[in-house]
Amino acid sequence: MILFLAARPVTAPPVRPAPRRSGRRLLAPYRRIFAHPGTRAFTAANLLARLPMGMLSVSAVLMIAGSRGSYALAGAVTATGLAATALAGPWTARLIDRHGQARAAVPATALAVLGSLSLLLCVHYGAPDWTLFASYAATATTPNTGGLARARWAHLLRDDPAARHTANSFEQAADELCFLLGPVLATLLCTTLFPEAGTAMAASLLLTGMLLFAAQRGTEPPVVARSTARARSPLRLPGLPPLLLTFGCTGAIFGSMEVVTLAYADAHGIRSAAGALLALQAAGSAAAGLLYGLLRPTGRGTRRFRGCVGAMAALMLLPPLAATAGGPAALAVALTAAGMATAPAMVTGMGLVQSRTPAGRLNEGMTLAVTALLAGIAAGSATGGWAVEQLSGPGLGYAVPAAAAALALATSLRHRA
């Protein structure tokens, strides 16, 4: 028996094929962009600095209203800061383009942090109301942290349009995540610790994150010669003003959606669930942004942008239908679906801004897009509030974001975006 077994040919056991790593292949575009040296470090630092963007206004409102007992004063102070940001933002971005991210963004951030700390002290020690306006206006020098990260990606991936598309998609999802978590963290700090806790934490995160971000000099875009950078203002570039108008209409969607959703939840006795409804919209947008980044862009950017805006306009019809014909549960589903349309439009639009802005003006061009968004948010908030009070039911207020989306589509179709 032993001789028989020894005489048998030795064959290797059958090798089973390794399981296909579909998940790793699916995430390959993101793994590829983060394989570049230094990208993970500057992304982590930038996310730390970007999180306060969703905390500052909410923290200021809770802090001022809690100490002064006036939401009107809190709203006026934050509105002043928004207007100041719209004016100072492009100026700050121009300095960053001219002198570099580390040299210009850090002092601008330090000034903004001093403004937040001044606001905190003025509220805590009962300073006159005018000091609140002056202090919060000083925070307008806060750099466009998302734009700083996008500028680094644009420099590192300047020869790879598909990778830039993936990076822009990731940055859009990061924006949504920060504006989703920021208000929650601010509310938690201000209500469980003390009213000034949210502002103090936001200022600390902003300064720490920006210092860490600026320290990553290996991925910082080089400064373009001043004669080239000053050649032409981004506002005079062909195709950019219509893009900014479309960004403004998109901002009106965000601003009106927030106000209308708060009013709808209050009217249905679920005021505490208003934040969850808005979070579903942001979560849908973040998920869509990440999935959109996995796709390889095809065709002209203008045509893709119009298609994304058209999809956004179509899906924005769902919330008014759900609010009037359904209930809160149907509205939650509709808001999630509607949110999934905004990220692809924003990603494609920001890609067009990058492609049509000179390298020496890139931060300024992207900050102008953010400024247009902020202006649209302010207009949308005012219009949404008027609609809630004037129309017969809060559900009809969702016609405002739907109309803003339709206006965005009309703007993108009429002009060469």
From TrEMBL:
Keywords: Membrane, Transmembrane, Transmembrane helix. The keyword DNA-binding does not apply. Pfam families: MFS_1. InterPro entries: MFS (IPR011701), MFS_trans_sf (IPR036259). GO terms for molecular function: transmembrane transporter activity. The chain crosses the membrane at residues 41-65, 71-93, 105-127, 197-215, 235-254, 274-295, 307-323, 329-353, 365-388, 394-413. Gene3D superfamilies: MFS general substrate transporter like domains. It comes from the Bacteria. This is MFS transporter. It comes from Streptomyces auratus AGR0001.
